[in-house]
């Protein structure tokens, strides 16, 4: 069965996007699913958050330039046997300019992922997008089956949500990726002590109903600390509120997308 591809995206930084990508990927792998996390962000936060170092020639940069395949770049994550990663590297920043000069520039990553999807070696491919709607993010959206939006529980986040949803509609209606679906909206950095946070979550649920995941990720010091130790939240502090929230999210995610290992 072909692997399902999920792009974790939001053009705004600091909204729990990479935190969600690494903990979702780790959590799915812990459930026995074979997962590849592809770090599409030149800043490489997903790479360092899993305790890995930048490695020249290790990212999708080479394959996007026509050198080798993505399968060549997949490497195991030592702390979780079912988890694999294609790390980032500094050179990845240069691809923004280079892709713009290519024919069918939005389709480059999608074409590269086809063999990885069809190999039968993986159940899910998670793309951690940069915090901007540039070439790398657009390629990630075109390559995806589902868009997962992380949305901070604050008022200004609503404006950013409208922007990325317009991009989703454009990609579908233009025929660039007609099968792309809004897989879900995950509310993050939720502070239950703040009334506005409750109001924002209520407003998003009102407009998007069941598209919004039931799980809400709390604002948590432990979640923000874990990446500096190169660990997922499950390794760093598996009993904190953030770990429980991501554990629930993983279960909900598996159910929603009917993910089965093998």
Unreliable residue runs: none
Oligomer: single chain
Tell me the count of domains: 1
Distance between the termini: 8 Å
Short description:
The protein is an alpha/beta fold and 262 residues long.
Helices and strands, with pairings:
Layout: E1 4-9, H1 17-30, E2 35-39, H2 45-49, H3 61-64, E3 75-77, E4 80-86, H4 95-100, H5 108-118, E5 124-128, H6 135-143, E6 146-152, H7 157-173, E7 181-190, H8 195-208, E8 212-218, H9 221-225, H10 233-236, H11 241-256
Helix pairs in contact: 1-11, 5-6
Can you describe this structure?
With 262 residues, this protein is of the alpha/beta class. It has one domain: P-loop containing nucleotide triphosphate hydrolases (Rossmann fold), CATH 3.40.50.300. Helices cover 40% and strands 19% of the residues. The chain contains 11 helices and 8 strands. An 8-stranded mixed beta sheet has the order 3-4-2-5-1-6-7-8, with helices on both faces. Strand 3 and strand 4 form a beta hairpin. The longest helix is centred in the middle third of the chain and has 17 residues. The mean pLDDT is 93.
